[in-house]
Amino acid sequence: MILPFVISLPHCSGEIPAPIRSGIVLTREEMVDAVDVGTREIFGSLPAEKVSCAKWSRLVVDLNRPPHPHDGKGPIALVDYHGRSIHSPEAIPDEREIALRVSTYYRPYHLQLEKAIAKAHIKGLLDCHSLKGIGPPEAPDAGKKRKNIILGNNGGANGEHIPKRGELTCTPALLKFMKQIFETAGFSVSLNNPYAGGFIVTHYGPALAQKGKMALQIEINQDLYVDPESENIILEKAADVRSRMLKCLQAIGRAL
């Protein structure tokens, strides 16, 4: 079964072009922190209509941010998630560099998504991420243990509309149905907590929802497949998670 979804993996890569890498002051380990570990292994080979994998690290360009700065956050980050400066003082991107990165790395990815989700038989967009098992100090759920799966439709704890967040990216009924599918597969599930959805789902989701389709942000807990000491992926566990994820998405695809 070909899944009737477009899968987006905007943070799956840690690659950085050499000219940009020379101006980054983060250590190798700190740069790895920017990667959504395991998303390529779990989602990247799923039999979906289209799987879009980022070629470059979000330290180059963050595909899950708006193309122009908004609330101080644009596609080119100056600090990482932990508040660390990314660039050396002389390498901080100026307007010309930002425009170049947007045209070179950002827009092609989004044009690819737009083309894929425009197909009539596509039922939805799945924007997939991973997160640490315990909320880090900078997170909205700092110090709290997280569920296996977090599903986001830009709503509240039951998928309901929250005016200050904007439009929903799928109906509450559909979100709750998908929650049941994942729980039946043995995953613990949270809705919109700690994250309700980033730019990709909130940008494309409302228009899809108006057509009776949907956009969903899926965050998967790295504790399911990452060794806590080495922080390496345990391939057998990742394969098990991938198998269970596939069955869930197949069930959702059939229902849609």
Walk me through what this model shows.
By secondary structure, this protein is of the alpha/beta class. 32% of the residues lie in helices and 14% in strands. The protein is built from seven helices and six strands, in the order E-H-H-H-E-H-E-E-H-E-H-E-H. It has helices at residues 18-21, 28-32, 39-43, 95-117, 172-184, 199-210, 235-255; strands at residues 3-9, 48-53, 124-131, 149-152, 189-191, 214-221. A six-stranded mixed beta sheet has the order 2-1-3-6-4-5, sandwiched between helices.
Encode the helix/strand succession as letters.
Answer: EHHHEHEEHEHEH
What distance separates the N and C termini? 13 Å
Helix content: 25-40%
Structural Rg: 18 Å
Fraction in beta strands = 5-15%
Specify the biggest β-sheet: 6 strands, mixed
Condensed summary:
The chain has 256 residues and is α/β, with parallel strands linked by helices.
Keywords:
alpha/beta; Aminopeptidase; 256 residues; 6-stranded mixed β-sheet; 6 strands
